[in-house]
Amino acid sequence: MYIVTADEMYDIDRFTMEQVGLDGKMLMENAGRAVAERIESLGGKSDRILIVVGSGNNGGDGFVIARTLFNKGYNVEIVQIVPDKKVSGDALFHKTLFMSLGGQLAVTKDPEKIRKKVRKADIVVDAILGIGVNGMLRDPVAKIVSILNEEADRIISIDLPSGLPADEGMTEFLAVEASQTFVIEHPKISTFLQHTAPYYGEWETVPIGLSANENGVRIDRMVWGESNFRRSMPVRKMDSHKGDHGKGLIVGGNTVMPGSIAMSVKAALRTGAGLVTAGTTETVIPAVAAHCPEATYLLLGEKEIKPDANRTVSFDGFDATAVGMGMGRHDNAGKLVSRLVEDTLGPLIVDADGLHHLKPIISKVKERQHPTILTPHPGEMAMLLDTTVPELLAQPFSFSKEFAAEHQVYIVLKGQFTIITAPDGRQAVNITGNPGLAKGGSGDVLSGMILAMVMQKLSMFEALSNACFVHGKSADLLVAETHSEYDLLASDVIEGIAKVYRTFLK
């Protein structure tokens, strides 16, 4: 499932019509019929359905929805909030079809007349505006949108809620607050932004015959879901041994946070790593051993992680390394991060306190011959960017893409919608997970899972996307079966990894 900007969606439409040969009337018919089928599953023929239409393609979809439902005996009425002369082209064609069948249509932009109709409706279909909105709505549309939000019991939006920007960067807007949105073909970027996602309500995509990359429009953003996970995960051979599945090193832990590295180690082993070594202090080792007896150890100081400037401790022999979880922000830890950036072979995953230490030496990362993966939450990403969290969250796709390209790193920007970004600009969004993950230790678990995944026979992009999928899906299955979003712990998520594998990799 691709994720598109408004311009990319226009390009896909144009290519489909000009090169493939599907004209606009047919695409509008496909969209309206597909949405009408979904609406049928939500209500009965006794429900009063009010469809509020504007001009343009979104309004045209509304006319097709109305005609389709009207032909099947549904109680449908249209309110057209623009003058007749504003309805033209394909939308006018479908309006004419609806009227020729005897459908009911009122043309008005009077807010109080519309308010009365909305109050009487069981379902209001928002077909006012499409993806071309930029800036604040003006009256009368702004007033009508406010009336829908105030009065409607249930609002169904087409493609995206009217007034909502399709793209990043806009934080001031007035938009319909939909109960449900039927997205046409591909979700837009605003579906996955913290400040715009709630306006969609529940959402699903409806195919209408458009396609992206294979039809000449290159899209580098996608939703990573169950089918991607099933397709990409390698099947283990009957004669495989622990060395085939990766020997990983996890560096971190201190006296006051021994659980961080312990959870990372166990998560890595549960996810499929063959061998995992905890590089930590003498005081932390007993906590890791109690939590995960399968781990081995690399001693990095008695009470505090130290850089070992004389290089007596070797980091050779590991297929991948993760650093940062619970290591602290003292100078010695910073020196150790610098050494790991310079010395380690294979992928290097930097999380938590490691990101704090990485910032002053970020220029060194580009010199590495192996992949570097950064796993920040929004506060850490804003720190790396020297920006604010609100500025980051308004444009997380753009910020991540620019940073990954500039420093040649992979970014796993954690959040409600975790965004995975590759140095070449490819991006994936993980939509698994729930508020139960908003607990201390969840990030440590994810880092361990990433360590295991990057050591499997996967591309780096697939490995990171799969780790995020399993992490969130574990939480989802646990909440659905045995836990709640309140009591779920990071350690529970580790135990839920088996549920994900058993469910999706049978």
Automatic annotation (TrEMBL):
Every YjeF C-terminal domain range: 225-504
UniProt-listed SUPFAM superfamilies: Ribokinase-like (SSF53613), YjeF N-terminal domain-like (SSF64153)
Highest taxon in the source lineage: Bacteria
List of residues binding (6S)-NADPHX: 57-61, 130-136, 159, 326, 377, 444
Sequence positions that bind AMP: K414, G415, Q416, F417, T418, G443
Keywords (A to Z) from UniProt: ATP-binding, Isomerase, Lyase, Metal-binding, Multifunctional enzyme, NAD, NADP, Nucleotide-binding, Potassium
Cofactor descriptive note: Binds 1 potassium ion per subunit.
Positions of the YjeF N-terminal domain: 9-216
InterPro entries: Carbohydrate_kinase_pred_CS, CARKD, Nnr, Ribokinase-like, YjeF_N_dom, YjeF_N_dom_sf
Binding site for K(+): N58, D126, S162
UniProt catalytic activity: (6R)-NADPHX = (6S)-NADPHX; (6S)-NADHX + ADP = AMP + phosphate + NADH + H(+); (6R)-NADHX = (6S)-NADHX; (6S)-NADPHX + ADP = AMP + phosphate + NADPH + H(+)
Enzyme Commission code: 4.2.1.136, 5.1.99.6
PROSITE patterns: YJEF_C_2 (PS01050), YJEF_C_3 (PS51383), YJEF_N (PS51385)
Cofactor: K(+); Mg(2+)
Function: Catalyzes the epimerization of the S- and R-forms of NAD(P)HX, a damaged form of NAD(P)H that is a result of enzymatic or heat-dependent hydration. This is a prerequisite for the S-specific NAD(P)H-hydrate dehydratase to allow the repair of both epimers of NAD(P)HX. Catalyzes the dehydration of the S-form of NAD(P)HX at the expense of ADP, which is converted to AMP. Together with NAD(P)HX epimerase, which catalyzes the epimerization of the S- and R-forms, the enzyme allows the repair of both epimers of NAD(P)HX, a damaged form of NAD(P)H that is a result of enzymatic or heat-dependent hydration.
Family: Belongs to the NnrD/CARKD family. Belongs to the NnrE/AIBP family.
Subunit structure: Homotetramer.
PANTHER family: ATP-DEPENDENT (S)-NAD(P)H-HYDRATE DEHYDRATASE, ATP-DEPENDENT (S)-NAD(P)H-HYDRATE DEHYDRATASE FAMILY MEMBER
Name this protein carries in UniProt: Bifunctional NAD(P)H-hydrate repair enzyme
Species: Virgibacillus kekensis
Taxonomic placement: Bacteria, Bacillati, Bacillota, Bacilli, Bacillales
Name of the coding gene: nnrE
